[in-house]
Design brief:
This protein has 103 residues and is mainly beta. The chain is built from no helices and 4 strands. Strands 1-2 form a two-stranded antiparallel ribbon. A two-stranded antiparallel sheet has the order 3-4.
Length: 103
């Protein structure tokens, strides 16, 4: 089975270091929603404190193999399988984050 995902918007921020995937807490991003949804598509969103953002790691590549490995490349941590690792190099490269709504 295949599942086609069509983007509904784009995330923009000033971060350029895609190889470093930690420390996103201080980064402010802007999400631009595609114009096809109209100017009222976000009506009522201001009543919420957070939004779940599903995204594709579009600049990451899939791993060449899926043998267990230490998370974050840290030798002091025990190896984990691909579904216990939170890195961007994963099957389908789909991610999710919960973000506070600031405006």
């Amino acid at each position: 089975m295949q599942f086609l995902v069509q983007p509904i918007g784009t995330v923009h921020n000033s971060r350029m270091d895609i190889a470093i995937t930690d420390h996103w807490g201080a980064v402010t991003s802007t999400i631009t929603v595609d114009q096809r949804f109209g100017e009222d598509c976000l009506l009522g969103l201001d009543g919420f404190s957070h939004v779940d953002v599903f995204f594709v790691f579009d600049r990451a590549t899939e791993r060449p193999h899926y043998r267990p490995r230490p998370p974050r490349g840290r030798a002091d941590l025990p190896p984990v399988g691909v579904f216990a690792d939170r890195g961007p190099h994963r099957p389908n490269r789909i991610g999710m984050t919960t973000c506070p709504i600031t405006s």
